[in-house]
């Protein structure tokens, strides 16, 4: 690995298993010399996250449910027992009731709308409030979004609305924290088969569509996302903030693809 992240410490939130986008990012950071801490949601995930953290030389594995303010405070209190400051934070967390990630957006319930916004949008701001206090020398904050924020994608529904709000919050946070040398960015990842994605209707079709229609004619991997995250989290991205960076094999630039057989 490189030395890009040597001497930097970061908190990775949202690791569930080795298919998680958080895992691709954590590996890239560790490979570049970063020291990592992890947070996980619920005791059931601890037994998965512990060995993954250990694989990257970390034994700082702390519980946090981002739907609960006291739990977020608890996370940062425990983190301070290990480190007095951090250089970066990754928020790879989203949630919506999967019964509403199929069918029509218009049928979204008030209850699930509020919960999706709370867990998938507000939680980033809530975490940034605490992280800011541990970044006296500046830092880099990163969240994960999806193209369904910008364009209508099948079944993405309320998550598309939530991701649009998350992307807007990245811009506001970037302005608020920029004067303290803290950068705030998002990666808009192409579809990847993860636990969270398995809740989305027709996900296999979405993957195939992206593979066939993206300029690179392939899907993206968590390693692809890790590489781009490394740029945003390290000093390579030192003048980049408020950005939504697409890591999607170029899918977002295509309006319409030419037919391969021209006489359709
Ligand atoms: P994942 O299931 O591996 O990760 C989602 C994580 O969110 C899990 O670790 C889960 O524990 C955590 N989480 C959910 N509710 C939580 C809560 N209340 N408190 C704490 N943690 C909570 O799936 P993933 O695809 O790696 O998702 C990571 C991020 O990437 C999400 O924001 C997702 O929307 C985004 N994203 C995913 C894709 C994709 O196709 N997989 C594409 C673009 C963006």
From TrEMBL:
Keywords: Fatty acid biosynthesis, Fatty acid metabolism, Lipid biosynthesis, Lipid metabolism, NAD, Oxidoreductase. Its EC number is 1.3.1.9. InterPro entries: Enoyl-ACP_Rdtase_NADH (IPR014358), NAD(P)-bd_dom_sf (IPR036291), SDR_fam (IPR002347). Pathway: Lipid metabolism; fatty acid biosynthesis. Transmembrane segments: none annotated. One of its GO terms (biological process) is fatty acid biosynthetic process. NCBIfam families: PRK08159.1. This is Enoyl-[acyl-carrier-protein] reductase [NADH]. It comes from Histidinibacterium aquaticum. The gene is fabI.
């Amino acid at each position: 690995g490189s030395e890009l992240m040597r001497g930097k410490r970061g908190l990775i939130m949202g690791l569930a298993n080795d298919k998680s986008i958080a895992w691709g990012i954590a590996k890239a950071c560790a490979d570049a010399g970063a020291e990592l801490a992890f947070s996980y949601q619920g005791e059931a995930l601890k037994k998965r996250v512990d060995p993954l953290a250990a694989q990257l030389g970390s034994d700082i594995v702390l519980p946090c449910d981002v739907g609960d303010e006291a739990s977020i405070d608890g996370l940062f209190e425990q983190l301070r027992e290990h480190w007095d400051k951090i250089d970066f934070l990754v928020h790879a967390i989203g949630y919506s009731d999967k019964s509403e990630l199929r069918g029509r957006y218009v049928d979204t319930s008030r209850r699930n709308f509020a919960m999706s916004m709370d867990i998938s949008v507000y939680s980033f701001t809530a975490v940034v409030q605490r992280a800011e206090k541990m970044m006296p020398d500046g830092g880099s904050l990163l969240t994960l979004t999806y193209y369904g924020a910008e364009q209508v994608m099948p079944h993405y529904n309320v998550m598309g609305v939530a991701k649009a709000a998350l992307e807007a919050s990245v811009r506001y946070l970037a302005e608020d924290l920029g004067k303290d040398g803290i950068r705030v960015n998002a990666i808009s990842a192409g579809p990847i088969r993860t636990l969270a994605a398995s809740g989305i209707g027709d996900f296999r079709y979405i993957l195939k569509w992206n593979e066939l229609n993206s300029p690179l004619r392939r899907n993206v991997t968590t390693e692809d996302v890790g590489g781009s995250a490394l740029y945003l989290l390290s000093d390579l991205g030192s003048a980049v903030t408020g950005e939504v960076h697409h890591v999607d094999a170029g899918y977002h630039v295509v309006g319409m693809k030419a037919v391969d057989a021209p006489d359709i």
